[in-house]
From TrEMBL:
<feature type="transmembrane region" description="Helical">
    <location>
        <begin position="63"/>
        <end position="80"/>
    </location>
</feature>
<keyword id="KW-0812">Transmembrane</keyword>
<feature type="transmembrane region" description="Helical">
    <location>
        <begin position="21"/>
        <end position="43"/>
    </location>
</feature>
<keyword id="KW-1133">Transmembrane helix</keyword>
<dbReference type="Pfam" id="PF12823">
    <property type="entry name" value="DUF3817"/>
</dbReference>
<keyword id="KW-0472">Membrane</keyword>
<feature type="domain" description="DUF3817">
    <location>
        <begin position="17"/>
        <end position="108"/>
    </location>
</feature>
<keyword id="KW-1003">Cell membrane</keyword>
<protein>
    <submittedName>
        <fullName>DUF3817 domain-containing protein</fullName>
    </submittedName>
</protein>
<feature type="transmembrane region" description="Helical">
    <location>
        <begin position="87"/>
        <end position="103"/>
    </location>
</feature>
<dbReference type="InterPro" id="IPR023845">
    <property type="entry name" value="DUF3817_TM"/>
</dbReference>
Length: 126
């Protein structure tokens, strides 16, 4: 069995830094969307024109933020050469409110653990 190809630690860390920011922004955007939906449907029973307008403006913005999150998660997944279930898990982190914050911490620990365990292109420089 051939040795695994080494990871490029610089690319991985750069990709993770972008993913980390996207995770936090997505988590906040999803919380805002949830608050808007609570105001629109639970507090005003779906009859408030104001919250309907706020929802119609914020929902596509949140969708765009989530798409950026997905792209950056995919980039990290490619750089780390993880299996497909990990990619699906990264996507799930951005769908469930508050989970992106915990998912970001878990992903950070996974990246650090794997960079320490797997060979990297920068190993010779240390």
């Amino acid at each position: 069995m051939p040795a695994p190809r080494p990871l490029d630690e610089v690319q991985v860390r750069t990709s993770f830094a972008r993913f980390r920011v996207a995770s936090i922004v997505e988590g906040c955007a999803l919380l805002v969307l949830c608050a808007i939906m609570i105001m629109r449907y639970l507090v005003y029973g779906g009859t408030s024109h104001t919250w309907e307008q706020v929802s119609s403006v914020w929902s596509p913005i949140h969708g765009l933020i989530y798409m950026v999150y997905v792209i950056l998660g995919f980039d990290l997944w490619l750089k780390m050469r993880w299996a497909l279930p990990r990619m699906l898990l990264l996507m799930l982190f951005g769908v469930v409110p508050v989970l992106s914050f915990f998912g970001e911490r878990w992903t950070h620990e996974s990246v650090e653990r794997e960079l320490a365990r797997r060979p990297t292109l920068q190993d010779g420089e240390r």
